[in-house]
UniProtKB/TrEMBL annotation:
GO biological process, one term: peptidoglycan biosynthetic process
Organism expressing this protein natively: Holdemania massiliensis
Coiled-coil region list: 244-289
Designated name of the protein: Peptidoglycan bridge formation glycyltransferase FemA/FemB family protein
Pfam families the record matches: FemAB
Family designation: Belongs to the FemABX family.
Amino acid sequence: MIMIADDFVFDEHPKPQEIEIFLEGHPQNNLLQHTCWSQVKENWAMKQVVVRRGGTIRAYAMILIRSLPLGLKLFYIPHGPIVNYQDEALIRFFFTKLKKLARRSHAVTIRFDPNLIDRTYPYAKRNEERGDHQQGNVIQLLSTLKCKHKGYTLYLKEATQPRFQAVMLQKNMSWEALNAKTRRSIRHAEKCGVMIHEGEDQLNHFAEVMKLTEHRKKIHLRSAEYFKRLMSLYGERAVLMTASLNLKQRHREITELLRELQEKSHELNKNEKEQIVNLNREQEFLEEKNAGRRFRSDAVRSSGFDSG
């Protein structure tokens, strides 16, 4: 169905290719509004709608639809709709049509969380006082359309999607772009035997860590099948990276280093004495972690999980 009002056109059957082009060029583009995400949320149906002006897409929403008792529905637009929220005429037209679509589909509500940045700041300054919120005018406009803002929530249980996101721009991910402290930490980790793995072959190990986290935190997380589906659907755009440390091997290396240093104890310089202190500290840490790992593995097995 296509609805027309003034120079806006509401289209319920846009072509997938034109949606992709629109998303790739939009600053609010995010993975939760791509078709792939609807395939991840396999218990939901999906509908895509757009608003055109002069034949060009100006607004888009991928709506996830969940069936409720009595033939009712729930509409959810994760990190959307994707639209210029400063264009009041466009917003009023789009949300009017979305509400009409919801009523026609027997949806009791439309839940949405636009991918709008409220404030940005370096992680090191996360506890500092901030100024006013940047999206107050958007909230005011949406409230005139009878949308209810849930507030600036702080906890995961208070929102469908987390409001806080740690972001690192791709241009800052090269070795040269990292600050000196981060580079030193990476070199130190490598020197201590930490191995970095990239690829889907580590997925089962990753899922095992998730199970251990579930048990430790007494929470429910995603299954291995969920992450496999993500890797399959997003292909080259999905990256799985893990880090591992062979505790027994590293313990042997430290023991050998300590033996060598202790053999020349009468000749030790200041740096070597500090090295002994650090190695002893690391050895104690590894022994504690290794004991804890054995305890957690036993706990996981007794809970019915396979720890490998």
